[in-house]
Design goal:
disordered C terminus; mainly alpha; disordered N terminus; single chain; three-stranded mixed β-sheet; 591 residues; CBS-domain; Tetracycline Repressor, domain 2; 4 domains; 63% helix; MgtE N-terminal fold; globular
Length: 591
């Protein structure tokens, strides 16, 4: 039989889950605590009394972090009922541990005096954290009630931005002089009786608070008591300044395995310290905020918020997604005639777009993560582009080949299967390329690459995937009555003249593509009615294998910016001759 300690993690989890279950499922308990008990609920007084007693015991047993989790997991009425049961001397710590999204529901029910009493038991840095998230008029009233010295320190910390070291540093530090002996330091610590939380070192300063070094606790214990602090201290400690970004400081803590570090001003004087507690909070908040922004949610969005508030916070993101979806729909609408002639295209389009979106999101996730860890340097851009496009080529050939074979088997049409393979590979190439470019462009513009990248890559891969696939399979006539179906779309792309100024600006980009297509043409690949399908597959294979990355960029750019020229035979019996011709751009010499 297992025995659980009263503060074991498992027992705390069970008690927290039980508390949430009682308050969220038993409406009578919530109504009773809020003084809204109905007549029908009064008849069940026996069970209600037991449940109320159990709730009170659970609230008294659970520590502030568990009570904060319970508050976040409860709807509005149950949340306020639980808040009423929390002792006044514990409310400050609970409020500090809870998410800012639930603060409004709790603070609205409190008077200024109650809120001031709640803040009194907290450290200065904790008071500042709460005051920074309160309305300005309420903050001003609370500051006016605080002692002058504490009010001055709080105002000093509130000058720093939320995401800086100055906003999260602690003022409680233990300092010693370099001329003191370790025995004197030990006596000093005993007289203090209590050290600040997460204290692993003392700071060595002059009388003017100039930081000279740091003295670890294990150094005090393991060295001769008669040695002086200046002889055993670390003279070159890791320090931070109050205006540094907290997220970058968190990386230093992780890299150097720090538990605490000194915060100094421009003159080198000790202002306070940072501890691992604050750093963990910074990492958690940054991760949580990034996840919310990637999903189009505000930082204060609450899962139990009223419907009206939840709707307002999601409008902007839905509007962006609606616009991108509308663009993709217009691309499909432009090929209505093509889809009506070959309905199989409609069932295959989502596959091309979906696989491109997945590839793009994988690339973006990897690039954004590498940027967050500072693994990407300016000179690595070309390498990343080539690497991701190489991965896309292999994936496109493998999975595009599989889907091409499946399409051939389903529709008994090898030409459609070849078009499916080509479209998948081109869309994967485009997705990989944009997955690298989009985050880097957003960083150049000073925007967070984690926000909006997924929407942009989805829009591009959906729109581009539909366009590439439908354009490759455009104008599918009967095999007996016209040119080859799969080759027709590709030849139409390859024979488009660059008539617009923008197309002429893309000459360097499409040069390699023209070389590839011209090479196929120069080998004299001609597709007549006899053995036409085998010939088409050879042309497609040659086009795919020769410089696939350049082909992807070139075909997509020309498809978007040029006009189509087609040629038809006058009689069905006439010999149909289709040949890939070089683009009529006189400035291209890479043949």
């Amino acid at each position: 039989m297992s025995v659980l300690h009263k503060k074991s993690a498992r027992l705390r989890d069970e008690e927290r889950a039980r508390l949430i279950w009682l308050l969220s499922t038993d409406k009578a308990v919530t109504s009773s605590l809020l003084g809204k008990l109905t007549l029908a609920e009064r008849y069940d007084d026996g069970t209600l009394a037991d449940d109320l007693a159990e709730v009170e015991v659970l609230v008294s047993h659970l520590p502030p972090p568990d009570l904060a989790d319970a508050l976040e997991a409860l709807p509005y009425d149950a949340r306020n009922a639980l808040w009423r049961l929390i002792a006044d001397d514990k409310r400050g710590e609970v409020l500090l541990e809870a998410s800012e999204s639930v603060w409004g529901d709790l603070i609205d029910k409190m008077s200024d005096r109650e809120l001031l009493f709640t803040l009194q038991n907290l450290d200065i840095d904790e008071q500042v954290y709460i005051l920074q998230h309160l309305p300005q008029d309420l903050t001003a009233r609370l500051l006016a009630e605080l002692p002058a010295e504490r009010r001055a320190r709080i105002r000093q910390m509130m000058r720093y931005a939320d995401n800086t070291v100055g906003a999260i540093m602690e003022f409680e530090v233990i300092t010693v002089r370099p001329e003191a002996t370790l025995a004197a330091v030990q006596r000093y610590l005993r007289r203090l009786g209590k050290m600040p939380e997460n204290t692993d070192k003392l700071f060595v300063t002059t009388r003017n608070k100039l930081l000279l070094g740091e003295l670890e606790l294990q150094t005090i214990l393991l060295n001769d008591a008669q040695k002086r602090v200046g002889d055993v201290m670390e003279g070159d400690p890791v320090t931070f300044q109050p205006h540094e970004e907290a997220e970058k400081v968190a990386r230093t803590f992780e890299r150097d395995n720090l538990l605490s570090a000194a915060v100094i001003d421009a003159d080198g004087k000790l202002m306070g310290r940072l501890t691992i507690d604050e750093i963990v909070d910074v990492v958690y908040e940054e991760t949580d905020n990034d996840l919310r922004r990637m999903g189009g949610l505000s930082n204060d969005d609450d899962v139990f918020a009223p419907v009206s508030k939840a709707v307002k916070t999601r409008w902007a993101w839905l509007a962006v997604n609606l616009c991108t979806a509308f663009i993709a729909s217009r691309v499909i609408d432009g090929f209505e005639h093509t889809i009506s002639q070959l309905v199989a295209l409609a069932s295959l389009m989502p596959i091309v777009a979906g696989i491109g979106g997945n590839t793009g999101n994988q690339t973006i996730t990897m690039i954004v993560r590498a940027m967050a860890l500072q693994h990407i340097q300016p000179g690595s851009f070309s390498f990343l582009i080539l690497r991701e496009m190489g991965v896309a080529v292999i994936n496109g050939l493998v999975w595009g080949g599989i889907m091409g074979a499946v399409t051939w088997w389903l529709y008994s049409d090898p030409q459609l299967g070849a078009v499916m393979t080509l479209a998948m590979m081109l869309n994967l190439l485009m997705a990989a390329m944009m997955g690298v470019i989009i985050p880097m462009v957003m960083v150049k513009l000073g925007r967070d690459p984690a926000v909006g990248s997924s929407v942009m890559i989805t829009a591009i891969t959906d729109t581009g995937g539909f366009f590439i696939f439908l354009r490759s399979g455009d104008d599918f006539p009967d095999v007996a009555d016209g040119p080859p179906r799969s080759l027709r779309g590709i030849s139409a792309i390859a024979t488009r003249p660059a008539r617009t100024p923008m197309a002429r600006l893309l000459v360097p980009t499409v040069a390699a593509t023209v070389t590839s297509i011209t090479s196929v043409s120069d080998h004299g690949l001609r597709c007549s009615s006899a053995g036409r399908r085998l010939c088409q597959l050879k042309v497609l294979a040659a086009t795919i294998t020769i410089t696939p990355a350049s082909t992807a960029i070139g075909i997509f750019a020309i498809t978007s910016l040029s006009t189509v020229t087609r040629s038809r035979s006058t009689t069905p019996a006439a010999r149909v001759e289709t040949r890939l011709r070089p683009l009529p751009i006189s400035t291209l010499t890479m043949v």
